Amino acid sequence: MAQIDFVSRVGVWWTSDLWSINDVITRAREIEWLGYGSLFYGEAGGKETFTQAAALLGGTERLVVGTGIANIHARSAAASESGARTLAALHPGRFVLGLGVSHAPLVEHSYAGSYSQPLSTMRDYLRTMDSVPAEIEPGAQRPARLLAALGPKMIELSGTAADGAHPYLVTPEHTAHTRERLGPDKWVVSEQAVALTTDRENALRRAHQHLHMYSQLPNYQNSWLRQRFDESDLVVGGSDRLAEGMVAMGDAGTVAAHVRRHLDAGADHVLVQVLDEDPLPALRELAPALGLS
């Protein structure tokens, strides 16, 4: 596997587009101090992903920074590869390039692109990345590439043309399925949303709010059907059953146990996404339950 120097097996997933970058760096430093091994974030029209990665890597010492994911429709394959190599040259083992095909509504409306044949589009994109000459950042190790892989064909591609998969909004059983398909020599970095509260009504409210956008996207609908949910779960915001399947709810011990289910299922690293505007209070409470220091 391509090198990733995680200092622990649990990291953080947090899209901080509405925060100033200086405030994000301050929080990233505390996330690192708490013992979390990484900070991943999304790209859906907010901050530019490589600029943010450079700021976070420069502002921390050991924290792995990952794009979860960089939208391949936002930049050319050559730009992605050369930018990733530069970050890897500056911070060996600490940058992970997560790539994804995104979703048809976003691609067609925000990027004025075509969403036809996403699998072949991703395959061609990776081939073009591989063709970037070695003279670009000579001697630098190429950073690990992970694909946003939910369906069987994209999971397969993440094993044959990349270094592994970054599953998002999945059960531990899906993590186990991904590990089985990829074998032992590829990275599996799974995301897990959490609502740290023993108030079930409050937890469900947060979970439904979180799922509101995703529940209207065909990629996630199809993924959940493959994960043994059914059409009755695909209401806007998701059913209660879907919400409880996608979001770990409860006290710190209960949430930590759910995170460990992904690790036991074969994840190399699990990203905790706190469903609060500021994730730090919950991350502070969770760290001891997760065995971090």
Topology, pairings included?
Layout: E1 10-13, H1 21-34, E2 38-41, H2 49-59, E3 64-67, E4 70-71, H3 77-90, E5 95-100, H4 104-110, H5 118-130, E6 144-147, H6 152-160, E7 164-165, H7 172-182, E8 187-196, H8 200-214, H9 218-226, H10 240-246, E9 247-250, H11 252-264, E10 269-274, H12 280-289
Parallel strand pairs: 1-2, 1-10, 2-3, 3-5, 4-5, 5-6, 7-8, 8-9, 8-10
Helix pairs in contact: 1-2, 1-12, 2-3, 3-5, 7-11, 8-10
Protein name: Probable F420-dependent oxidoreductase, MSMEG_4141 family
GO molecular function: oxidoreductase activity, acting on paired donors, with incorporation or reduction of molecular oxygen
Domain Luciferase-like: 20-269
Give an overview of the whole structure.
InterPro entries: F420-G6PD/mer, Lucif-like_OxRdatse_MSMEG_4141, Luciferase-like_dom, Luciferase-like_sf. Residues 20-269 form the Luciferase-like domain. One of its GO terms (molecular function) is oxidoreductase activity, acting on paired donors, with incorporation or reduction of molecular oxygen. This is Probable F420-dependent oxidoreductase, MSMEG_4141 family. Pfam families: Bac_luciferase. With 293 residues, this protein is of the alpha/beta class. It has one domain (10-289): Luciferase-like domain (TIM Barrel, Alpha-Beta Barrel), CATH 3.20.20.30. Helix content is 45%, strand content 16%. The protein contains 12 helices and 10 strands. The protein has helices spanning 21-34, 49-59, 77-90, 104-110, 118-130, 152-160, 172-182, 200-214, 218-226, 240-246, 252-264, 280-289, and strands at 10-13, 38-41, 64-67, 70-71, 95-100, 144-147, 164-165, 187-196, 247-250, 269-274. Strands 1, 2, 3, 4, 5, 6, 7, 8, 9 and 10 form a 10-stranded parallel sheet that branches. The two termini are 26 Å apart.
